[in-house]
Amino acid sequence: MKHAPTWLIAPALAAAAAMPAHAVQYLSIEQAQKDFFPGADRFEPISMLLTAEQKGFVEKAAGVRMRYFRQPMWKVVENGRHVGWVVQDEVYGKHEYITYAVALDASGTVRGLEILDYRETHGREVRNARWRAQFHGKRHGAPLQLGNDIQNISGATLSCRHLTEGMRRILALHEAVLQ
Amino acid sequence: MTARRSPASSKPADTLLRRARPLLGTLVAIRAAGTSTASTDAAIAQAFEVVSHLHARMSYHDADSDVSRINRAGAGTLEIDPHTWNVLAAARRLSEASDGLFDITVAPALAAHGLLPHHASHAEPAANATWRDVVLRSGHRVELLRPLHIDLGGIAKGYAVDCALDSLRRAGMHAACVNAGGDLRMFGDVPETIHVRHPLAPTQLLPLCALTEGAVATSAPYFSARQSGEQVVSALFDGVRRTPCPGARSVSVVADDCMTADALTKVVYADAAHAPAVLAGFGAYALLLDTDAAGRCRAKQSEGAGWRELSSELEVAAA
Q: If residue A87 lies in a helix (H) or strand (E), which one and from where to where?
């Protein structure tokens, strides 16, 4: 670097100007579907409620809890042929709440994973169903104003453990209900 | 603050896209501005491919990576991926410059504290092995003078950010930012604000600096801390003493490239007194955030061979 950077921290500390938690919207589920399967004719939503048995199977096979009986899933059809699946899921850790989409081919092999939304919280909210509920159905409408102007954060060593667990759950779900 | 606009705002016709995928054990986010949605989308996909390749070569956890091959090998010579070779060469330069405060061979100490897994297939490391035992040879070969375990964690992450950003630049993007779990690098023509986490309240963000081009890496123990026996330890290790660095500080380094920035955060963490001279040698700058007994956040910036306290100015400003 030719010059020292312009540090902004001093005025921020003086004014106690910490920003609230931040949020980023990367993709809508529709955009993710098109990115995964650009040649698809249609994405047929699968409306089904898991039975207690199926839920139990998923939890046992994946080794993680399944919180809901309903999971957003789409059957992908290209030239009249079934070519794969798109599954939407969400995971949350101590500070973060992530929705993401996974593409599977017709045999259940993972073709891709895209993060849809990433939201940070101050910790407690993320476990709170009412806090999480505010995001349901929000994706297609106006983005939430949660520190949306924050573009660049240095120092976020988030662990992807929850995403790995989520992937295991989705693969088990495929085995239980999509095969 | 004048620097809150996105890089696309300077060229209104640009398409600005953001994507994120789990890679390198964290979330890798890429933002790029190009002339069309299709070209920007393709450039981002290509950049993720680059990161994915580097992840596969340099992961500590993946049995097929160059890192695992080195850790299994014991002493001897191996041919490795040119990218892995580049990272090992950079690691050696950083170890030399910091007298071993930065040392990729601390992996066994990390594993002993439960911060890295034990792999049964790894060769038993020599207790006194250091970075000096990793010797780079021509033809992308590396010679290990003693059996040792390396972990390229942060430095490989920084290198992946650098390569992904190069890929976006080559693809003709006008502005871009790659952020791998807090190691970020950007280019463009509009300054942007970089935020850091409050060391005691990681979801609280503080504006750190304004940057148009360059890299920032921050090391802080808030997310990596683990209980180890009586101690809470983080993955930040002193390469000389081979012990976890104490304290809840946050260290940010600004440098031309992300690999250097990430490695230098470790040097500052391990030995703040000697770090400014090392930073100066790499044309890098650091900002250290600490908290006093009253829980107030204090800041100091590297300047020449020392540190300049910003807190006294703060009190004046606050008054």
A: strand A81-92
Beta-carbon pairs below 8 A across chains A and B = 185
Nearest residue of B to residue A125, measured between CA atoms: B203
Short-list B303, B113, B204, CA closest to A18? B204
Chain segment B115-145, per-residue pLDDT in tens: 788 888 888 888 899 999 999 999 999 999 9
For residue B202, the chain A residues in CB contact (below 8 A) are 95, 155
**Are the C-beta atoms of B193 and B4 separated by less than 8 Å?**
yes
ipTM over 0.85: no
Q: Chain A: residue nearest B42 by CA? A: A35
- B22, A163 contact by CB (below 8 A): yes
Q: DSSP alpha helices (H): ranges in B16-152?
A: 37-58, 66-73, 82-97, 107-112
**Spatial contact of A170 and A87, defined as CB atoms under 8 Å apart:** yes
Q: How confident is the model at residue B151 (pLDDT cuts 50, 70, 90)?
A: very high
Contact by Cβ (8 Å): B160, B51: yes
Q: How far is CA A152 from CA A148, B206, B267, in A?
A: 11, 11, 23
Which residue, among B258, B214, B286, B234, has the nearest Cα to B24 in the 3D structure? B258
Mapped onto helix, strand or coil, the DSSP state of residue B52 is: helix
Q: Which of A26, A151, A165, A170 to mutate to test the interface with B (most CBs of B within 10 A)?
A: A151
CB distance from B304 to chain A under 8 Å?
A: no
Interface of B with A in 114-153 (CB under 8 A): none
At residue A131 the predicted structure's pLDDT band, cuts being 50, 70 and 90, is low
Alpha carbon of A32: minimum distance to chain B alpha carbons (Å)? 10
Element (H, E) at B33: strand B26-34
pLDDT at res. B285: 96
Record the pTM: 0.85
